[in-house]
């Protein structure tokens, strides 16, 4: 592992927790939180915001304040990256409430997000000295280490920031022209002759292209494989063999399966098969992590007791956490607030529910903090841990006499708080690794994380409402795969209404894929999502593969531009949602080409997408003279 700690010595008196650093970080937390909420609801995954936040921070600090220390830039990215992680935990769970037809209050979303985020931070703090310091050589924390390298090479911030801003402007302009003025179709489709209900689509979205570039060709190919199985194997088979059968899912519709189109079969069947595959894929990821889980839990609990027993120890600046007595006090306060929250919402047995939240949060925060040190935040099996939480919690609540709406709401609240804590703990671990490498002050970073969670929690509820009102959470535009899965799991346990046959088909499909030695979770997500979402992702993955071969090394410029594409498109999507929500879209409707010969053309819709793909390739490719063997 690269050794450059400390970029700032222990004894140095360098600006770190400044108003400009924290303020900029809070703004970035809101921006990246909104962007990742949109992306996560659309495709079921989020992207790490640490490096983009660090690059943007360095550029803004240099432009507005002329000078900023490496520790101030690190503080900005620490606060800013919390927004992405909180958004991931929120959109994986809370949208399930919208899917059930219930609109939670903004204050309710804020409280769940805040409780989960702060629990993830305070439970992780006692683990820092063991996971980050003692296990420094064994746990690389890939995103945290990469972010430290970017900060250490801060003089390159101008060129790196340029890639982010080019991506952001391109993504925003593309989204405005496509979804705002509706100059071209967002998802061109082509019926494949000779295959009953064979439908090939492509969501012409820069953010999906960018996701494929970031995750790389292998994971993108796994997702495409799942999509192909669903749309070119299972849907045609259902269409052929079910031509004389009515739908067992919605028999009241009296619709013959053979009369259903591809999208109707996806809605009635593939979503449940995909949900079973995602559930099993998540559990397999969790099972693979059992040795790590056991070791992390043992070491984490031992470190917590060890830290609590220490008295009157003076730590160096770069090794000073929030004191354990304050951490324990915060845990007690959060537990009391959680119990009060359940009582306020009229949920009976609030003590039982609070105990479940605290136990699952502590256990899985420990697991998450350790796992991301090995595989990175993007491979953190948060879905599997959340599903395990929901299954156990739902079963306990059901056996305790809670069912129906009350039991479902209690279960999703438990799952939401735990899931948000899992995601935030992974982000906090990466940020503390970055701080360890560059010589930051841990307790200041931990305070920064708390502020970042607070800032993004204030905005995430508004974002969900805007997106739901404008696009519809659970619709084709915002499929919300994880939230749909969580809703299915809880409702299935509480009401025994889940079509288990379809779920088992998906589950065994994931097991077969796992036996081939393939990442079943990525495959399962591809099976669950519409194929039109996987096709642009694989194109981005192929571009990444070609660029890396030409450059003869891993590319960073393309990753930064991809992050900009995601942020730009997502933020413009949220802005358009604001216009739709407040019915300010008269100009958009007047200038729409949607029903014209160009606006309705499938072929024309591919042209701007190809241009963006070409731009990504051009920006990412290093000139020949810069490549050294």
UniProtKB/TrEMBL annotation:
Task: Print the keywords alphabetically.
Answer: Membrane, Transmembrane, Transmembrane helix, Transport
**Entry's transmembrane regions:** 21-41, 47-65, 86-103, 109-127, 228-249, 326-344, 350-372, 384-402, 408-426, 447-467, 498-518, 525-547, 559-582, 603-620
**Membrane topology designation:** Multi-pass membrane protein
GO molecular-function terms, A-Z: oligopeptide transmembrane transporter activity
In the UniProt record, does the keyword 4Fe-4S occur? no
One cellular component term (GO) for this entry is: membrane
One Pfam family, short name? OPT
Q: Where in the cell is it found?
A: Membrane
Q: Which InterPro entries match?
A: Oligopep_transpt (IPR004814), OPT (IPR004813), YSL-like (IPR045035)
Q: NCBIfam families recorded for this chain?
A: OPT family oligopeptide transporter, OPT_sfam
Name of protein: Oligopeptide transporter, OPT family
Q: Which organism is it from?
A: Muiribacterium halophilum
């Amino acid at each position: 592992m690269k050794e450059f700690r400390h970029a700032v010595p222990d004894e140095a008196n360098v600006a770190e927790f400044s108003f400009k650093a924290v303020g900029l970080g809070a703004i970035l937390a809101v921006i990246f939180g909104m962007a990742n909420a949109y992306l996560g609801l659309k495709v079921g995954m989020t992207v790490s915001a640490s490096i983009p936040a660090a690059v943007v921070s360095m550029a803004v600090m240099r432009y507005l304040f002329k000078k900023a220390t490496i520790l101030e830039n690190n503080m900005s990215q620490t606060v800013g990256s919390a927004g992405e992680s909180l958004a991931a935990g929120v959109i994986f769970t809370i949208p399930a409430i919208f899917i059930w037809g219930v609109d939670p209050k903004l204050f309710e979303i804020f409280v769940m997000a805040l409780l989960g985020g702060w629990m993830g931070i305070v439970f992780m703090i006692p683990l820092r000295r063991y996971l980050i310091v003692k296990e420094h050589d064994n746990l690389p924390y890939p995103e945290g280490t990469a972010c430290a390298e970017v900060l250490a090479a801060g003089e390159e911030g101008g060129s790196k920031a340029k890639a982010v801003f080019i991506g952001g402007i391109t993504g925003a302009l593309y989204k405005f022209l496509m979804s705002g003025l509706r100059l071209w179709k967002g998802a061109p489709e082509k019926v494949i002759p000779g295959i009953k209900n064979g439908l090939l689509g492509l969501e012409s979205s820069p953010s999906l292209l960018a996701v494929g570039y970031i995750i790389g060709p292998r994971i993108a190919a796994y997702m495409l494989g799942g999509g192909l199985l669903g749309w070119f194997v299972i849907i045609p088979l259902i269409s052929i063999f079910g031509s004389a059968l009515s739908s067992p899912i919605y028999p009241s519709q009296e619709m013959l399966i053979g009369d259903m189109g591809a999208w109707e079969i996806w809605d009635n069947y593939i979503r449940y098969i995909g949900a079973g595959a995602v559930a099993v894929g998540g559990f397999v990821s969790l099972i693979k992590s059992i040795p790590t889980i056991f070791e992390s839990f043992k070491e984490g609990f031992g470190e917590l007791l060890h830290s609590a027993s220490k008295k009157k120890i003076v730590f160096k600046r770069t090794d000073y956490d929030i004191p354990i007595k304050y951490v324990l006090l915060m845990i007690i306060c959060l537990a009391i607030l959680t119990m009060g929250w359940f009582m306020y919402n009229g949920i009976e047995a609030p003590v039982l529910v609070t105990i479940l939240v605290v136990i699952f949060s502590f256990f899985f925060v420990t697991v998450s903090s350790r796992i991301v040190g090995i595989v990175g935040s993007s491979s953190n099996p948060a879905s599997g841990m959340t599903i395990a939480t929901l299954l156990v919690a739902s079963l306990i609540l059901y056996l305790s006499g809670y069912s129906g709406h009350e039991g479902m709401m209690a279960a999703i609240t438990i799952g939401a708080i735990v899931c948000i804590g899992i995601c935030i703990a992974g982000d906090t671990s990466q940020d503390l690794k970055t701080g360890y490498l560059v010589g930051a002050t841990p307790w200041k970073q931990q305070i920064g994380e708390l502020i970042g969670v607070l800032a993004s929690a204030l905005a995430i509820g508004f974002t969900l409402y805007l997106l739901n009102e404008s696009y519809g959470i659970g619709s084709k535009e915002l499929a919300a795969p994880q939230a749909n899965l969580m809703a299915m799991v809880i409702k299935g346990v509480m009401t025994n209404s889940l079509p288990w046959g379809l779920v088992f088909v998906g589950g065994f499909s994931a097991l077969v894929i796992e036996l081939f030695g393939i990442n079943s979770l990525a495959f399962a997500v591809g099976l669950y999502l519409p194929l039109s979402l996987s096709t642009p992702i694989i194109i981005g993955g192929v571009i990444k593969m070609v660029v890396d071969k030409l450059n003869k090394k891993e590319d960073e410029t393309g990753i930064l531009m991809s992050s900009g594409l995601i942020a730009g498109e997502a933020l413009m999507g949220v802005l358009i949602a604001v216009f739709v929500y407040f019915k300010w879209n008269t100009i958009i409707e007047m200038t729409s080409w949607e029903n014209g010969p160009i606006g309705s053309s499938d072929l024309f819709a591919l042209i701007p997408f190809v241009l963006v793909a070409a731009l990504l390739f051009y920006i990412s490719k290093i000139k020949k003279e810069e490549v050294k063997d």
